[in-house]
Fold:
Amino acid sequence: MVSTLLLRGGIVLDTEPEPRVTEHADVLIADGRIAAVGTGLEAAEVVDVTGRIVLPGFVDTHRHTWQAALGGTTADVDLPEYLNRILGGYAPRYDPSDVFIGNLTGALDALGSGTTTLLDWSQLNTTAEHTEAAIQGLHESGIRAVFGYPGRVSATENSRLSFAYAALGPEIAGTYEAVREWHEARELGLPITVHMGGNGQDSAARGLAVLEQHGLLGPETTYIHPNYFTDDALRRIAATGGTASIAPISETGLSIGYPATGRLLRAGIPTSLSTDTVTSGPGDMFSVMRSAYLFERACGGTDFTTRDVLRLATVDGARVLGLAEVTGSLRPGKQADLLVLSTDRLGLAAHPDPIASVVLSAGPADVEMVLVGGAILKRNGQLLHHDSTALRAKLRESARRTVL
Structure:
């Protein structure tokens, strides 16, 4: 028997083929997928969302999820000091239980603020137990996740979990190791996610030259923080089908270069947004969208609109992760990954342009309901299926062991 759920009478924002608004619309969900968007629809279970904003869940294409207990620990520092504190100082103190609680609470924090899909760029794979704990944390959260890991891990029965190859790349690991990583990823049939282009112009040029010289440029690679690549370099990446992930808050806060959002789009590179790390900024996509918009407008990108930003945070993020047929929009047939925003707050009560209101005015506190694969994970502003009080205590204990 097909299970059905209807979100009735909402202000529906879709992102495909272009962002648009449909007033007083129903969203029908059947067996976890979007079945229809329209009016006069019926279902076994009906949720009245009249006056509320319904939109696709956000897609975060680069997050070090395990760092949930380290919020604010790298404020006011640059990238070298971030690496020194986080990877050189705190990370070695983490046991598998810390990784588990970090990934679980980090993913739940993302879910609670409307992110239904994330790429977890895993950095703590000290032992097999650490890696297993990271995956288990994602699994128990209920989020849709891509686990970024330098290799292949054991198969999982979790249909919401897929994998990517998290490469150190030529700028960090050097030529020999980068070539090995790319060949291994291709042998495994995994997409590659790599931090490249954020360490200065000379480093960016050298790193890209390594990939070009060894025939490693290709559509399977997502470049994180590609801010120091020249426009010509971006055109070469575009010609080989590469994609990009921009983290505007951490990039400016850690001096990783000015976010190249507009330059990437002008070069024709599929571009997405990410939170990166809660050690240097907030973990919600509302803040990231707002920052990306304002930074690009500040540098003269006045043709960059709130509709562009919403696409980056949803359907374009799904495209970058290879999930364009799975999530990121409300197209019938896709997984029902979506959120409902309350408009009770005075700042959202009047919304002549709902898309602009979402990008410029909404925040995590406005997220009333979140669904992943049709399953309701947040309702009436509260996360379901988890004891938040107990999780907060465990996260604080992890922070005491590893940081304080």
